[in-house]
Amino acid sequence: MVIDDHMVRIDRSVVDDHTMIITRGPQDHFSFLVIPLHADASAAYTVMTMAVQDSNCTSAEQILADTGITPA
Hints:
Mean pLDDT: 82
Shape: elongated
Strand content: 15-25%
């Protein structure tokens, strides 16, 4: 797709069931944790807080499990 005259490629990379990777150029890679729609707002907030910690090395699956969010 084209956004503001820049080509944005959306592709799927298998990391685990709850992570999506967006790539912008050869060195810019962004990893997104996908929170299931059925997640409680408070638990979702906790998940986001845990995921963005600089020292975080916990998998997306484990972060969701630690907050009681289960896949649909």
